[in-house]
Amino acid sequence: MTASTASASVLVVGDSLGLGTEPALRAALPAVAIDADSRNGRTSAEGVAVLRERLRPEHETVVFDLGTNDGPTAVALTTGSLAAARELAAGRCLVVATLNHPPQAGVSIDAQNASIRRFAAEAPGAALVDWHAAAQSTRGVLRPDGVHATPGGYGLRGQLFAEAIQSCLTGGGVSGGGREAGATPGRRASATKRPAKRRARRLDPLSSPLEARLLEAIGKSLAREGGPLELAAKAATIVSVAGTIVRASVVPRGPEPVLGAPD
User: Fold this and answer.
1) CA–CA separation, 81 vs 89, rounded Å?
2) Whose CA is closest to 67, among 99, 19, 32, 107?
């Protein structure tokens, strides 16, 4: 963990996916203060109200992990909520994610995800976690409902969000109202942060077993950059994340609520 992230604070607003992701996210970012507010069945519109209430000056990055409960037919609702979240974030880096959802009334999630990707590509300071691409290219990530993640899937999801947050916290200065970095798809590369290297870190298909592939990716991150102190800090993070993934793989989780059901 770099010095610039040692006192960082992040606000996470999410739904049941946020609840499942939170342990792995905290393990991956042990030095970051994570203020999480996730609830089963929460829609993006409800999340905007929570963001308005919970956002504080000390929150340097906002994670708006919502949209799944809107459903594939509610493209306009999700798009409007993302725009409202961006306004509330007021120049902070805003992390958003693509969605996984079975077709609803014959409508696939594709239009919803296209809208989210377009928002991330065009909104200043937005970072995209392409969770849909990761889930489609990795066996064993999603449960049979096509929405919620498996234990190993939540481990991967937490690491992807951690990388996006890390890029927000270390990715450069403010330009056009938001932070810029290139560590995740949808982000424009910062001219001061070696964009060629960071742009190469886009998600690609994971063909090996989930835990081995995730640890391999973290190991490659160690080799990319940083002095001895930073490498030692990253090594400690690897031990923590690896423990979380192994525990998640052997300890069964209880069933999650049906999508959209009340608490």
Assistant:
1) 12
2) 99
| Full residue range of the structural domain in which residue 34 is found | 3-250
Query: What is the per-residue pLDDT across 107-143, written as a single tens digit (0 to 9) for each?
Result: 999 999 999 999 999 999 999 999 999 999 999 999 9
* 99 in any annotated domain: yes
256: in domain: no
Cα 63 to its chain centre, rounded Å, is: 7
- Residue 200 forms part of a structural domain: yes
In 10 A of CB 103, how many CB atoms? 12
At 141-196, the pLDDT tens digits run: 999 999 999 999 999 999 999 999 999 998 743 332 333 322 333 333 332 232 33
Separation CA 90–CA 177 (nearest Å): 7
Alpha-carbon distance of 47 to 83, in angstroms, equals 12
Closest by Cα among 218, 220, 167 to 193? 167
Within 108-227, residue ranges assigned H as helices are: 110-122, 131-136, 151-170, 195-199, 210-224
Nearest-10 crossing angle of helices 210-224, 151-170: 20
Residue 260 burial (CB < 10 Å; 0-12/13-18/19+)? middle
The residue behind tokens 């951690």 is: 162
DSSP 193-259: S-HHHHHTT------S-HHHHHHHHHHHHHHHS--HHHHHHHHHHHHHHHHHHHHHHHSPPPPPPPT
Is 57 inside a domain boundary?
yes
Residues 8-57 pLDDT 10s: 899 999 999 999 999 999 999 999 999 999 999 999 999 999 999 999 99
Angle, helices 228-250 vs 151-170, to 10°: value is 160
